[in-house]
Known about the structure:
By secondary structure, the chain is an alpha/beta fold. It has 7 helices and 7 strands; from the N terminus they run ααβαβαββαβααββ. Strands 3-2-1-4-5-7-6 form a 7-stranded mixed β-sheet. α1 (5-15) packs parallel to α4 (71-84) and α3 (52-59) runs parallel beside α4 (71-84). The chain starts with a helix and ends with a strand.
Amino acid sequence: MAIDLSEYQRWQERFGTADYAFGKAPNYFLAACKPLLPKSGKALAVADGEGRNGVWLAEQGLDVLSIDFSPAAQQKAGALARERGVNVAFELADVHDWNYPKAAFDVVAEIFTQFSTPAERARKWAGMGRALKPGGLLIIQGYTPRQLHYGTGGPKQIENLYTRALLEAAFRDFRDLRIVEEEVEMHEGASHAGMSAVINLTARK
């Protein structure tokens, strides 16, 4: 697992506290996608951190694999899964270089994983697309460049932020592509708190 050690250390320290940086509740957009989820099947939670989203997907009856490169995060994610009484499989992985299995998942969710450079993002998104089964559901939420005005979470590098054009280009071969930009008051732990500029995507492979 070839990773940027400074980035690794930053997330290890961020997740190495008792508090859950983004809270224990699922991301609000992911939760809003519940009607789109299959009743059963396999889900991949990409860069799932402390597990709030992967655990929630497991609570919906899905067989979840949660991947992240931070052992500190996955330790807390495992504790959250036990607390909620669900089974989640965890794998330490660099989401940019992980061997995404072909057509293995019914759902792939990527929520605020904007530490990726443009080149890393391209590899990650290609892998996510490959991992979805035909007809599988893709769920993405990220910050837009307007988030730099708010400073309530997310990266400071504009090239790491998502735009409609970027998402449309990356997932133009998907069907039922729905992209919505919104500015909302978010309260997801101490790390996402306040007015936020986000972009939401759902699509079918």
